[in-house]
Amino acid sequence: MTTPSITASDWLNIDRPPAPEDFRGKVLAVEVFQMLCPGCVMHGLPQAQRLRQTFHADDLAVIGLHSVFEHHDGNSRESLAAFLHEWRIPFPVAIDAPGDGAMPRTMTDWGVQGTPTLVLIDRKGETRAMHLGQVADMALGAQVVELIREERPE
Amino acid sequence: MTTPSITASDWLNIDRPPAPEDFRGKVLAVEVFQMLCPGCVMHGLPQAQRLRQTFHADDLAVIGLHSVFEHHDGNSRESLAAFLHEWRIPFPVAIDAPGDGAMPRTMTDWGVQGTPTLVLIDRKGETRAMHLGQVADMALGAQVVELIREERPE
Amino acid sequence: MTTPSITASDWLNIDRPPAPEDFRGKVLAVEVFQMLCPGCVMHGLPQAQRLRQTFHADDLAVIGLHSVFEHHDGNSRESLAAFLHEWRIPFPVAIDAPGDGAMPRTMTDWGVQGTPTLVLIDRKGETRAMHLGQVADMALGAQVVELIREERPE
Amino acid sequence: MTTPSITASDWLNIDRPPAPEDFRGKVLAVEVFQMLCPGCVMHGLPQAQRLRQTFHADDLAVIGLHSVFEHHDGNSRESLAAFLHEWRIPFPVAIDAPGDGAMPRTMTDWGVQGTPTLVLIDRKGETRAMHLGQVADMALGAQVVELIREERPE
User: Fold this and answer.
1) Among candidates A91, A95, A24, which has minimal Cα distance to A63?
2) Calpha distance C104→C33 (Å, rounded)
3) Coil, strand, or helix at residue D141?
4) Å from A55 to nearest chain C CA?
5) Which of A154, C7, C26, C74 is deepest in the core (most CB within 10 A)?
6) Interchain contact, C141 vs A146, CB within 8 Å
7) Pairing between β-strand D8-12 and β-strand C8-12 as defined by DSSP bridges
8) Cβ–Cβ below 8 Å for A136 and C140
9) Count H helices, E strands: chain D?
């Protein structure tokens, strides 16, 4: 099943919202995080950064999705921009759009259960893995290669 | 020379601003930090917490001082309250009052050069050490005992 | 070029020396180490153990090769057996046979430059990588999958 | 009670066995270890080295005591010398003399229960702490200062 689109209220670390073409035919790793979540800061985001450094940008795109479901008042756009700057997070980050309740829209659409979650989407746009919590680097590197070696869509 | 008082615009993790009596005659460790400073999150605040767990509260009081000199917009009281909750920081935290420029007032009064800085104040209220950056646990534990063993003022 | 055989004076953690059939058609990871080499103890051997836990034994075989080129007197078979027991190294370990000089035979035959070195041998028996020192888990996991996905020989 | 003397069959990292005068009036930290004990390698010995770097040699002497009670065959003098060299252990190390059973003599005399154990002996020669397993750097630094500040014997 094709992964629903990201519904973002804004993007950081990129001049304009990415177009679908930017990811077309690539494997896409999406780090779903909250800037005030310790596991995201200690594990999820550094691992996403290692993914970006290990694989070629033509094969794997890495982005963040800031999906706040707690402490909404403490997570302004300005806070997030400063956080990304201070922690040296270089990849594009989408701010998940508000949902009907506490959960933001994309998080709900994707069925993400908490943060950090690393979502792997294949070259055809289908979700192939959702790792909630910690996943080991070795197993993740292996899984990403499996997806990279799949056929690119026409 | 006696350490100037903390000029706080607010306090968190405590019902009312601490009175001078709360620290009188104790050694006081003040972790000067910013919630968006990686070195504070990774090293300074966990070490302050270890100080609190290692020494008796009658001998050593541990507090935080949130002294923001960058990204003022990203550091609201709500952000800080959520941060302290998520990172399980249990000790009282003063929000340093705005100063004349970018630097907050207590940070300027004390001559703190950056974050994290651990300030050690002796039983008589004099500043005895300002550790900017990382200081080793073993040396810090030794230094705190030296201060604890000094005579309590009358 | 086909990797020369392991010339072992003895094996530990296995009842009999492995036969060529034991590795036939599999990818083989050989951790070349010395028990008195800190980098081997801290990085090389734990990583070899993670390789063993991450991949299926039908795809990847993991063994150690104890290739002593320093402190020969301090590296008896008894020392090594005790070391493997205490550090919980469960995979088979070959004791590299003495060579003409200080370097043991297999280490010379393979052209290994130091320890730790992780040697990756493909399904056809050819050496495909020799990682001297540290290699990141993510990149290694990716590389092993590439070799696993290659065709098994007839 | 005065700590019994160290009964050593040999010493490494020092030209001659230390005389009692070498430690007289100092606090003495003795790291009781086995070279094949992972907790000793990972925690005990690095901490002993930090003790040596943190305190002044006039106040605190740091030595090792190699007390083998398992795998006697794998722990020759040559193995230990190579181990100390490779792991960069610079302080004097006594080889505990054989005892009547599996336990070496000094270990039995002192009542040490396992390795690693850090034994702290005060300026008067009395045992004041035996830390079996891990002890936190901060608490240890504090405890050593307490002993250093005690009166030197006449």
Assistant:
1) A91
2) 12
3) helix
4) 8
5) C74
6) no
7) unpaired
8) no
9) 6, 6
Cis amide linkage into residue B116, ω under 30° from 0: yes
Of the candidates D78, D93, D3, D77, the one whose C-alpha atom is nearest the C-alpha of residue D40 is D93
Which one of D138, D143, D148 makes the best mutation probe of the B interface by having the most chain B beta carbons within 10 Å? D138
Nearest to B141 by CA among D8, D141, C118, D13: D141
Structure tokens at D134: 């891990």
End-to-end CA distance of chain C: 17
Residue B47 CB contacts under 8 Å (≥ 6 apart), including other chains:
B31, B118, B135, B137, B140
CA D58, D59, D60 angle in degrees (round to 5)? 105
Place of tokens 């289908």: A126
Q: Which chains touch D (3 or more CB pairs under 8 A)?
A: B, C
Question: Which one, of A120, A91, A94, lies nearest residue A3 by Cα?
Answer: A120
- In the block, residue with structure tokens 């051997």: C45
The amino acid at D61: A
Residue D70: the pLDDT is: 85
Query: Per the CB < 8 Å rule, is A51 touching C138?
Result: yes
- pLDDT by residue for chain B (154 residues), tens only, comes to 678 899 999 999 999 999 878 898 999 999 999 999 999 999 999 999 999 999 999 999 999 999 999 888 777 898 999 999 999 999 999 999 999 988 999 999 999 999 999 999 999 999 999 999 999 999 999 999 999 999 888 7
Task: Give the whole-angstrom CA distance, residue B148 versus residue C7.
Answer: 63
Most C-contacting residue of D72, D86, D87, D95 (CB-CB within 10 A), to test interface: D86
Q: How far apart are the first and last CA of chain D?
A: 17
Place of tokens 């996991």: C141
| Domain parsing of chain A, residue ranges | 8-15+22-105+135-149
Cα separation, C48 vs C53, whole angstroms: 9
Residue with tokens 């003795």: D30
Q: List chain B residues with CB under 8 Å of A75.
A: 79, 82
Alpha-carbon gap, residue C90 to A90, rounded angstroms: 41
The tokens describing D88, both together, are: 């960069």
Measured CB to CB, residues of chain C less than 8 Å from chain A are: 50-51, 54-55, 136-142, 144-146, 149
CA atoms within a 13 Å half-sphere pointing along the CA-CB vector of C130: 13
Burial class (CB in 10 A: 0-12, 13-18, 19+), B121: buried
* C118: phi then psi, degrees, rounded to nearest 5: -100, 120
Which CATH number describes the domain made up of D8-15+22-105+135-149? 3.40.30.10
Residue matched to tokens 């058609």: C25
| Residue entry with tokens 């919590």 | A133
Inter-chain Cβ pairs, chain A and chain B, closer than 8 A: 57
Contact A137 C142 (CB under 8 A): no
Interchain contact, C142 vs A145, CB within 8 Å = yes
Probe site for chain C from A55, A138, A144, A150 (most C CB atoms < 10 A): A138
Query: What does the CA dihedral D97, D101, D103, D108 come to, rounded to 10 degrees?
Result: -80
